[in-house]
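Obj: model holo form, ligand = magnesium ion.
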Amino acid sequence: MNNVYIKLMEECGELTQACAKVLRHKDEEWIGRLEEECGDVMAFIHLMTEHGIVNRDAVLKKKWQTIAKYGRYFYEENGYNTVKNRNSGEEFDGGEYVG
Ligand SMILES: [Mg+2]
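Output (holo structure tokens):
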């Protein structure tokens, strides 16, 4: 079906699935898939702003608010746990994820 909302929902689902694969397999093999799905979601957000379905300024305002709220966790000692952290010697676990 050619419906932009359904397509965005599908891509968000694929991005969710890619995140789950990275957590489940705990290695960088799945990072490529994660990158692809991030790109797909970004593309549909771009298209939705370009065609006036959502307001670009409102989207960007919220984007920077969220970065201001959560971005700092990458720098805190007990912040985000990532595959990248694992490779730098820190223990990687999926947190509370049960998959
Ligand atoms: Mg996709």
